[in-house]
Amino acid sequence: MAFAVACFTLLAPWQLGKNTDTERRNDLIRTATSLETAPIDDVAPGSAFDPETEWREVSVTGRYLEDRQALVRLRNVKERPAIEVLTPFAVSGSDRVVLVNRGFVRPTEGAVPDIPPPPAGEVTIAGRIRAAESVSNDRGAGDQDGVLTVPSINPGLVGGATGTKLDEFYLQLSKDQPGALGEIELPHLDSGPYLSYGLQWLAFGIMAPLGVGYFLWAEIKARRRAAEASAPESSEPRSGGTAEQTAGAESPDEAHAAAAVVRTPTPTKGAPESRAERKRRMREELRAAAGASVTRQVGQIGQGPTSEESASDKLSRRYGG
Prior knowledge:
Elements: H1 2-33, E1 38-39, H2 40-43, E2 57-64, E3 70-77, E4 80-91, E5 97-105, E6 123-130, E7 142-144, E8 147-150, H3 155-162, E9 170-173, H4 194-230, H5 252-262, H6 275-297, H7 311-319
Parallel strand pairs: 1-2, 3-8, 5-9
Antiparallel strand pairs: 2-4, 2-6, 3-4, 4-5, 6-9, 7-8
């Protein structure tokens, strides 16, 4: 059940949320690419970032501040390692300074290669407004071989390391602009697998309790069958028990005689007994009694006479009298 709860409250919302964010980003890109380039003061008149303006291409005139440049290492562009170059840009006619991502360069055997400098003097550039990336609390700006490095594209982090007040957003420099390096292309406008992943987690959340319930039902059913199969048969006494099962049972011959008597048909109560039936019943009773008497007198082979038989009885039986 804990897995089902995690599917509904954590895993599925996580993937569905990513799908929502991706769809929103794609909508913003479609809208932004359908609009013409506008001056930065028309789209972003202040230093604050407006999420609705992300991906809009704006133009700005000013100059690069190369001495406050920073590098973002450990990036991946087109499935290859890359270093992105961030250079502050002072806007002409104001005190605004915007951080510009000029593009990427490829590292040389893990080292920072020579980076082409930006043009000196006043230039006009065009770039797309981008939101600042998040910053990890345990990672900050550093210095490597005399070059300022940062873990992510965050104007606040670069501004704090260089002592420069920067706008909250940054500009992703467009292709073939002054100072541009390797182009960082727009994301592909596909939704990705997040929706299907979210639906899969929902399905798992539904199937998990159903599967547990089925296995519990099958286990209970199997145990009931096993209990029924191992249960003893009915313990009711039988009408015709054997001599070994009956305490104080008679000898086998006596039991046979008694059975013969029991099997003797008796007239139905209330019905008159005919003379023939009465004679037949008497003969059967006499025959059964005679058989029991003979059985009691005759011993088994290999055994002597019973203790109950007297000497006079033996002589009378042998010689008559």
